Structures are given as structure tokens and as C-alpha cells.
């Protein structure tokens, strides 16, 4: 077996799977290579000290075992964090939590980071908050990738109906 025990645990019993109704931020990201998609939903709340933290997070992933495991891990990592702290989570944090990922599966962890970035982007946008330039650039890249994936699926559907 080439997945770690931690990865298999998260894949078989993913944490925070599902959807949040009326989320404060929702992000969708796709992987241009394999066509896998992930949606991530956030609820943000203010603590007694006036600090905004990510209070609830859920995900839906249509993808491989590594995509599901990394999605599960990222939801654990962002819960209770501020938006700024959540934006600092990178693929190394996810991979370390899983005690490693096969090199061929590292791109799957980026799907989770992209979906989180998109959910935060939407949250900041909806609330008229400044959006960091790096997040704006990531958003543009993800939008292009999603368009491409959706076009490929539409083409495949039209062929498969023939
Ligand atoms: S193979 Fe598509 S995200 Fe893993």
C-alpha cells in the first residue's frame, strides 16, 4: 500500500464532509490534469475578543483517495483559525499531517488549498474586504482551470449521449 495509515484513515472516515447552508464563503477548485473537483464551505464568527475565526468548515470532493484525505485534513487545520492564519496553510502542512503523500499524489493536496483560497476569496469579496494580490492571482488561475474542466465535461457528455 503506498498511502500512509493517516491518509487511509482520513480517506475512509473523512472529517467535516458535507455542505454548509448559507456559507460565509464557498470555494470551488478543480484539477486541470485529472478533472477532480472540490467544494469547500466556511462559516466565520466573531469571538468575545472581536477576532474573526473560521467557526465551521465542510467540504465535498469528487476525486481520488488523496484528494479526499487532503480535503479532510485541511478542514481540521483551518477550524478555529483566523482568515490570515488559514491563508498561510500550505501543502507541506497537509502532507506533514498525513505523514507523507506519494510524489505522484502531491498535486491532489493543491486542490484542497485552492478550494480553501477560493472560499476565503469569496468571503473577503462579499464583505468588501481587501483581497491580497496573491489570492487574486490564484483566483484568476483557478477560474481559467475550472472553465477548461467544465468545457471538457460538457464535451464528454455530448459525446457520451451519441
Ligand atoms: S488524482 Fe485528481 S486530485 Fe488526486
Automatic annotation (TrEMBL):
Superkingdom of the organism of origin: Bacteria
Any one Gene Ontology molecular-function term assigned to this protein's record: iron ion binding
GO biological process: one example: iron-sulfur cluster assembly
Pfam families with a match to the protein in the record: NifU_N (PF01592)
Annotated ranges, domain NIF system FeS cluster assembly NifU N-terminal: 3-128
InterPro entries the record matches: NIF_FeS_clus_asmbl_NifU_N
PANTHER family: IRON-SULFUR CLUSTER ASSEMBLY ENZYME NIFU HOMOLOG
Name this protein carries in UniProt: Iron-sulfur cluster assembly scaffold protein
Source species of the chain: Candidatus Roizmanbacteria bacterium CG_4_8_14_3_um_filter_36_10
Amino acid at each position: 500500500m503506498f498511502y500512509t495509515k493517516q491518509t487511509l484513515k482520513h480517506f475512509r472516515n473523512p472529517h467535516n464532509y458535507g455542505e454548509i447552508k448559507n456559507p460565509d464563503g464557498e470555494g470551488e477548485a478543480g484539477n486541470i490534469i485529472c478533472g477532480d473537483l472540490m467544494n469547500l464551505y466556511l462559516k466565520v464568527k466573531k469571538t468575545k475578543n472581536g477576532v474573526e475565526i473560521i467557526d465551521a468548515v465542510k467540504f465535498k470532493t469528487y476525486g481520488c483517495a488523496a484528494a479526499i484525505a487532503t480535503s479532510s485534513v485541511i478542514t481540521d487545520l483551518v477550524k478555529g483559525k483566523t482568515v490570515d492564519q488559514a491563508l498561510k496553510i500550505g501543502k507541506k502542512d497537509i502532507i506533514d499531517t498525513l505523514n507523507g503523500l506519494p510524489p505522484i499524489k502531491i498535486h491532489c493536496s493543491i486542490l484542497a488549498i485552492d478550494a480553501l483560497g477560493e472560499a476565503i476569496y469569496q468571503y473577503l469579496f462579499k464583505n468588501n474586504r481587501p483581497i491580497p494580490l496573491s489570492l487574486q492571482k490564484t483566483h484568476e488561475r483557478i477560474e481559467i482551470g475550472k472553465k477548461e474542466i467544465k468545457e471538457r465535461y460538457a464535451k464528454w457528455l455530448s459525446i457520451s449521449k451519441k
